[in-house]
Every structure is written in structure tokens, then in C-alpha cells.
Amino acid sequence: MKDFSNAIIECVPNFSEGRDMNIIKQITDEIESVEGVSLLDVDPGKATNRTVVTFVGNPQAVIEAAFLAIKKAGELIDMRTHKGEHPRMGATDVCPLIPVSGITMEETIAFARQLAQRVGNEAGIPAYLYEYAATADYRRNLADIRSGEYEGLQTKMQQEQWRPDYGPHAFNAQAGATVIGARDFLIAYNVNLNTTSTRRANAVAFDIREKGRQKKDENGKVVKGADGEPEWQPGILKNVKAIGWFIEEYGIAQISINLTNMNVTPLHQVFDTVCERATARGLRVTGSELVGLVPLQAMLEAGKFFLRRQQRSIGVGEAELVRIAIRSLGLDELGPFDPQKKIIEYRLRDVNVKRLVDMSVTRFAQETASESPAPGGGSVSALCGALGASLGTMVANLSSHKKGWDHRWEEFSDAAEKGQELIKEMLYLVDEDTNSFNAIMAAFGLPKATDDEKAARKAAIQAATIYAIKIPFRTMEVALDAMALAIDMAAKGNPNSVSDAGVGALCAHTAVKGCYLNVRINAQDLKEHPEVKPLLERAETILAEAASREQQAWKIVIDTMK
Fold first, then answer.
1. Which of 50, 209, 259, 467 is most exposed, with minimal Cβ within 10 Å?
2. Is CATH 3.90.550.10 the right assignment for the domain spanning 8-182?
3. How many CA atoms lie within 13 A of 16 on its CB side?
4. Per-residue model confidence (pLDDT) at position 352
5. How far apart are the first and last CA of the chain?
């Protein structure tokens, strides 16, 4: 049986309570009581009377936490008195599982069915399966399962085709029913309109959503097909579900959107299309909000999209791209948008891991000056390379909006974007060089009492040493690319910044030479090893090429300043 201890799945249960924080806290306490689970986000909505909770962990822990939360919600929430703007059919309305890492969708489906079985059999709450976990095609769509909502559930459950997949077939008046499934990452997203009209908001929602709207003839009657069912006119955007509603809490109408595949239809395209359709109907989009968490990639793509619209360089830092996305999408209209709390990758960062690149300049310098042998020359060389790439990128960005060079913005934007990739890899190598040294030290600390232990220790030391050769070698390669960027910007970029490009080339050359020394010293006892020998030969070539490039950069800079 596969070991899932290192696998990660995300769970995003939606509870039908958004006003009583005491009830919400009791439910989330159940989640946090399970070891191996991290509670990432709790997002209550007063108007919807609904709370979206996000947590992650290994599958077994997530299933346990989800079961306890669903059971507790069924005990605390009484659906007989529940009112809210959002469609719902149970105390825990829906509970999807999403594979994050180390687990396939098929394996996630098995865990979803395991959870549904426990909810049905142990908690006594009728459970339906949806999306990838559905037991029939007609049950894949959440909206179809939830049609009729809680008020129609008792009658619906009596129909053979809508009997629950697990649990009692009798109506549970207090808890309703729960829909459990496995799905891809879903972005829950609301767009704000300058109207209070739900009907007008729905008109825009029907324009954009994949399902579209029912066809009508010239007299306004619904057109039906040969099977007697209404015909549908598809909407503009694929993998988008949307409805319009009025949010009393804010005094506005919104378009509530579920984006089920951001790779097909990205977040910024949804926003832009809503803006177009709203304008066509005499409405204005005033902002938007994200419910729950959003992948970093969605924000970065949005930032780049809006910068391209302005013909500005997209080769800016990650934080700036996120800031542009927040402002352009109006994500802070209804309340502060904190990227550290709303972007899933930021929430998953291990705050206990201390990285060199997160230190202040002063702290890094003092850490290097300490008695510890790491960080050492390799990490410092990689930092020099990162600074060299940063200077080349800076010149590219400055050149992209130089007066009179508007026609060249894309050329420099491409160069800056390449520079950001180099910076990112160099910063990774700053820490990885120290990590590789620590791995060697750990291998030397292995036991060596028996012959087998001695052999295992020797093999571990060799493997760690080879890795400690490959890391500075990779730094040499990346630094050489950073030199090429700096030279290109010195030759073609804003002449007022030519000295900056020159310094960038010098920093990158330092990285090459410094890491060459590291490669050589780490390879002293392995020069003829089949993995090491070609690296040493290539390192000599890179060293010579870097020396030539420094002379080239120097000449360009000095000639430009004459």
C-alpha cells in the first residue's frame, strides 16, 4: 500500500453559518485538533450566512479533520432556521478534496469516497459524491445535486436517481445533506457592480458563464428541443460558473463566480470579460473579492496582463506583480487584501525554515563572519550573481519606459523577465550551497561501527560531495547568463544606466570565479569520477568565457562614457 504520509491534499468545506463566530470557532477547533493538519483560512460571509474554510495536510489527517468538522457542524447548525443568499442543502454544504502534491486525482477520489462513507455511516448525514468522485455523470455537477436546495431535499431524496451515495435515505432535518468530492483547484471569486439589481447582475453572469442562458424566441418564450427540454445558448467563458446576487452587507449586487480551471480561463480574463459585459449593459465594475485562497500563479499572471495592457515591462519582482494584480482587480475595495493570508503558497511556507535570502544585509554579513564555515564562499558568490542579474534587470526595466523608446518596451520587457528568472535561481543557489555543505557534514556524522555502516557512510559522503560540486557549477552557468544580460543591456539599454550594467557584469563575473574555486576544492578527491570529470572540464570553459565577457562589458561601458 502506498505511503501517503508526505502527500498533501487541500480541503475546502463550506459551512452554512457565517454570522455566529462561536459556532464557526467550535467547528474549526475540531479541524485544528488533528495532528498533521494546517488551518490556512476561515472566510465567513454574513450575507451568504456561509463560511469557507481551507486546510491542508496528509490525506489521512485531512479526512479525520473533515469528518470531525462535518459531524460538529451537523450538531451545531440547524438548517430548519438557516437563511442566506448562497445556494445550500446542508450544515456542511459541500466538502471538496483537492490534490496538492504527492498524490494523484484517482487516489484523492478514493479518499473522498472514504470520507463520504464515514459521514453517512458514522455521522448519519446523507452524503452525495460529485465532480471526479461522482458515481454517475449526472451527479458530477454540484449545481445539479444542490438543485432545490435544503427546502426541496426531503422530496428529492425520495426519487430513485437522487438517493444519497452513502448514509441514511431518510431526511435529516437538522443537518440536511453534504456533497463530498474530488476536484481541481477552484477559485471562488465575486465581482462587484454599481447596482443593487440582482436581475441585471444575473444578465452579466449568464453572458459570461459556460452554461450560458436558456434560448428564447422573439416572443420571449423558452425554446425547447425535440426532447422537450430547454435549449441553451452557451456563454463566453469556459470552466466558469456564475450567478448574480444582492449582498445586503455591502449594499451592492455581485456576480458570484466559480472558476474551475484557471489554466483554461485565467482570473484576469474573467474580470476583464465581466467589465466588458457590464459596460455593455450600462453597469460598472467597481472591484472584486476572492473567497478563500488563490494560487500565486493566478496573481502573477494577472499582474503581467495588466502591465502588458500599459505596455510596461513585466520583468518586475513577484511582490510588484502581486501588488499590480490587487490594485487592477480591485481586490481591496470591500476590505484589506493581505497576500500573505490569501495566496496559498504564502500560507504553506514553513515559517520555521530560516533562509539566508530572508535575512537583512547586515544579518547576512554577520552570519557569514561568524565562526561557522557556512555560509561561505559559494553562498556569497551566488549572492554576487543575484546582484549582477538584478542590475541587468534594472537597466532593462528602466530602458522599457525611456522616453522615445516606447516602440521597444517589449524587447526590454523580455530581457527583464529573463533577468527575474536568473535572480530567482541565483537566490535559490545562495541557500542551496549552504545546504549542500551541511549535507556533507551530516554524512560524516553517520555511524561507522560495522563494515556495512562504513560502506553506507562512505557512499553518503561521496553522494553529498558530488552534489556540493554540482551546486556551485550550476551557479557558474547561471552567472554566465547574467553576464550576457548585463552586456546586452550595456550595449542596447538606456545609456544613462550603462555603468549599472557594467557593475552587473562584474558582480556576475565574481560569481563565476568564486564558484569555480568551490568546484575545484570540493572535487579534489573525485577528479576522475565519471560525474565530476566533465563538470571540471566545462568549468574551465565557463571560466575562460566569463573572462572574455568581462573585457567585452568593460569596453562597452568605457566607450559609452567617453
1. 467
2. no
3. 29
4. 61
5. 72
- In the chain, where are the structural domains located? 8-182, 187-343, 359-560
User: In the chain, helix, strand, coil percent, each to 5?
Assistant: 55, 15, 30
Predicted model pTM: 0.81
Q: Degrees (nearest 5) of the Cα angle 83, 85, 91?
A: 50
Answer whether 175's CB lies under 8 Å from 71's CB.
no
pLDDT of residue 377: 95
Q: Is 117 exposed, middle or buried (0-12, 13-18, 19+ CB in 10 A)?
A: middle
Length of the chain: 562
Closest CA to 50 of 96, 15, 12: 15
What mean pLDDT, rounded, does the chain reach? 94
pLDDT for position 548: 97
Q: Note the pLDDT tens digit of each residue in 185-204.
A: 889 999 999 999 999 999 99
Q: What one-character DSSP code corresponds to residue 471?
A: H
Q: What angle do CA 240, 242, 243 make, to 5 degrees?
A: 170
Alpha carbon distance 302, 269 (integer Å): 8
Instruction: Please compute the mean of the pLDDT values over residues 100-104 and round it to a whole number.
Output: 86
Q: How confident is the model at residue 350 (pLDDT cuts 50, 70, 90)?
A: low
For domain 187-343, which CATH number applies: 3.40.640.10, 3.30.990.10, 3.30.750.24, 3.30.70.670? 3.30.70.670
> Parallel, antiparallel, or unpaired for β 187-193 and 252-259?
antiparallel
Say yes or no to pLDDT of 172 above 90. yes
Integer-rounded Cα Rg, in Å, for the chain is: 29
Q: Which of 473, 442, 435, 472 is nearest to 456 (CA)?
A: 442
Task: Tell me the C-alpha distance between 305 and 236, whole Å.
Answer: 19
At the topology level, CATH places domain 359-560 in: Four Helix Bundle (Hemerythrin (Met), subunit A) (1.20.120)
Give the contacts of 124 (CB within 8 A, at least 6 positions apart): 74, 167, 168, 172, 175
Q: How large is the average pLDDT for residues 141-148? A: 92
Confidence grade of residue 145 (pLDDT, cut at 50, 70, 90):
very high
* 86 counts as catalytic: yes
Catalytic residue, chosen from 165, 272, 433, 488, is: 433
Q: What is residue 39's predicted lDDT score, i.e. its pLDDT?
A: 93
CB of 47 closer than 8 Å to CB of 85: yes
Nearest to 48 by CA among 308, 247, 228: 247
Highest mean pLDDT among 7-11, 244-248, 276-280: 276-280
Given 86, 165, 207, 500, the catalytic residue = 86
What letter would DSSP give residue 245?
E
With bands split at pLDDT 50, 70 and 90, how would you rate the model's confidence at 5?
confident
356-379 per-residue burial string, b: 16 or more CB within 10 A, e: under 16:
beeeeeeebeebbeeeeebbebbb
33-47 pLDDT, tens per residue?
A: 999 899 998 999 888
Helix 21-32 vs helix 59-76: crossing angle, to nearest 10: 150
How would you classify residue 145: left for phi > 0, otherwise alpha for psi between -120 and 50, otherwise beta?
A: alpha
Q: What are phi and psi of 101, to 5 degrees?
A: -155, 150
Please say whether the dihedral angle defined by the alpha carbons of residues 522, 525, 531 and 536, taken in this order, is positive or negative.
positive
